[in-house]
Amino acid sequence: MISRRGALVAGSSVLATVAAGGGVYLTATHDKPEPPAPKSVSPDGKLLWRNWSGIQTAYPSARLAPRDEAELARMLKTASAPIRPVGAGHSFTALVPTNGTMVSLDAMSGVTEWQGDEAVVLAGTRLGALGPALAAKGRAMANLPDINKQSLAGALATATHGTGVKLQALHGDVTALRLVTPDGRVIDCDAGRDADIFQAAKVSFGSLGVISQVRLKTIANRRVRRRVWIEPFDEALGQAEARWAQHRNFEFYAVPFTGLAVGISHDETDDPAEVRGPDQDSAFLDALKALRNLFGFSVPLRKAAARALLASAKPETAVDEGWKLLSTDRPVRFNEMEFHLPVDAQLEVLAEVVATIEQERPDVFFPIEVRRIAADDAWLSPFHGGPRGSIAVHTHYKDDFSFFYELIEPIFRRHGGRPHWGKLHNLRGQQLAALYPRWDDFLKVRAELDPEGRMLNPYLRGLFGLI
């Protein structure tokens, strides 16, 4: 038995060697060129903003970075519209682009006070910085998403989530928030004060104003045991429900064209720390891309090679504080579509998605992420009214992602899927109103707080059915 990292790194070399011996070395090593890069400065001298994956761009006429809430309120009063808040740029949809004003809250970061076990956190705080800040007080967030680079406000705005049948998305732990409206008003709200604004603002895409701070429930900071293993895809499907019931956090990745899946569990433990090893995801993706380049012409051959390379990899374990293990660095850029399905349809939909990709898109090599999230009551939360199972389809940033809309989204929609607000989708207006019982209530609150639509860029106007 060898470690997964050893298998993947060695396997990439073996694949290249086999390819060279077979006279197809160029096929194995050929990589697509970088997508065309937009100009760093527009003809009228405006600087480029670009999201993490590179598909969303803008040349805002003004960029604001308030140092505190009072300065934020003053700035919003006179800012040129559309006014759009920006965090880490990890959304794939066009929530941020504007030719008006872009507002960064990076200077408004940190935990400002504690109210019992609840932390008051400035909205610009990055999730990766919030973990150690809470741990210093012996506390932690109940859950974390797959990536922790986002700002807290950005994560809340898009209903960012982790995984766990008893664990809500991040906004589910918000007990109060402060919203600065486009006219400079500051509104403190919670379940008892301006409750409608509170339920609307917890997931609001930055369309009501700019959240300046939130009050978060926390839990005791505990060590967790992280376990990662590879198994047949059919076994992962058959065991998924039992594992969601068994583990505090459980998710798995279906790996197209391999017949395999990668399981990941986290459970609280008092065992001593076992430091997490070096990142292996990049090596894993390199091996999957090499398999595609070599054997993309034959699904059976590609699956056989994948099983020979990966199936005997040894499970990995690590023990550490949860904030150190629940999120992962993702240095390889990608684009993504994620929908949240009724739980009784999730695994059936996953099987259909995998089969569709294997039949129609041999260029795909990224794994498909599968998670489960508890219900909450935020009006535009995808988890409003009941738990949901998420399926996230990825493709390399150099590859075409139009198949998301042509092949994958119709499957999700046919089964009542709700889109992740930060991930690619084509739903608009009445299509979304049919999925969200409080959609019209949200639009009413939005119109009251921003009657002139100063927080709305063209994408949001289309999303809300206003154009």
UniProtKB/TrEMBL annotation:
Family annotation (SUPFAM superfamilies): FAD-binding/transporter-associated domain-like (SSF56176)
Gene Ontology CC annotation, any one: membrane
Domain called FAD-binding PCMH-type: residue spans: 56-221
Gene Ontology MF terms in the entry: D-arabinono-1,4-lactone oxidase activity; FAD binding
Protein name: Oxidoreductase
Species, as recorded: Caulobacter henricii
Keyword match Mitochondrion: no
Keywords: FAD, Flavoprotein, Oxidoreductase
